[in-house]
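Hey, can you fold this one?
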Amino acid sequence: MRLLLLGTDGCHLCDEAQTLLNDNNITVVEYIDIAQHEEWQAQFALHIPVLYHVETQRYLAWRFDSPALLSFIESLKYD
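Sure. Predicted structure:
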């Protein structure tokens, strides 16, 4: 399962999302700065941080908590 955390440098909400991922032992995440990717910037700039599942192109936009995060991860197992 390949997950990306989409955000930008200096984004305090992105830091909060990373902490939440760490607290839930979700370590398969690669951080992507959307400022370097015009297509993702256009789509996600108003929603960062975003947890993005590469294989299904499904995503979970901020503001998510542990139950929402774990539910999203669990749902990916059945796609």
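The two ends are 11 Å apart (CA to CA). Let me know if you want another pass with a different chain boundary.
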